Amino acid sequence: MAAPLAAAPLAAEALGSRLPPLLVAADRVASTVAQGVHGRRRVGQGDSFWQFRHFVSGDPLARIDWRQSAKSGRGAPEGWFIRETEWEAAQTVCLWRDASPSMRWRSRQAAVEKRERANLLLLSLASLLLRGGERVMMMHQNARPVASRSGLDRLAAALQLADDDGGQPPAIPLPRYGSVVLFSDFLSPLPELRAMLGRFAAVPVTGYLLQILDPAEAVLPYQGRIRFRGVEKEGDALIPRVESVRDAYAERLKAQQDGLAAMCASAGFGFGVHRTDHPPEMALLSLYTALGTR
Question: Residue 121: its pLDDT value, please?
């Protein structure tokens, strides 16, 4: 037991040392995009009761339901409850980033892994949404929404600690009529992705899928005899002349993307593609604009 306990502070320190640069980069990207967009928050509050939720840092004290809080029998702020309406519940944006091994792959044509770019875009989007008065929640067990930019460090910590999730968002309760934004390479078989979207549509929620690809995945630039190693137990594939399969590969990728776009449209979702060798600001602007029009 001594070794794990001794290693815990070191692990925490290493985690903390990685967060500030990521948060600074996310805030910079969000600030750049914020100059050209308006907030999504709409005027007015709905009065149809939806649910009580626990008070989180950043919530105005005036919104605490003191009668419900008194029933909890707990002190402040653990026992405080916020009364939510249908309109307010719809403003929670739930975010998820694929933590499977394929997101850790990077070619020589890219400066960052797909997972690194997904982290940056997720936190940048969260920063932008919080500036506009939205609430943001990471999709993981026991997740709680954040309502102010001070909660960004909690979102960043959740990203750093996320383990391999099999390329599927966790099955957790989501607010009805809210929004979800999913960051992944979405290279899984289309039937699996269709089933995933079906689960969200049944809640119901809408949202956006952003496919993040390495430039080598997008254009297959290799020449000659290449052995491709599977990163998720797919096995290896030896191709004598890669250039001979480039056109077929492009058709297969396009079919995957066309299938994703069609499934998203039928489920009320948006769909976009981003390459890791392209500026993150363009992807964030497109994503934020799409959320505002849905």
Answer: 94
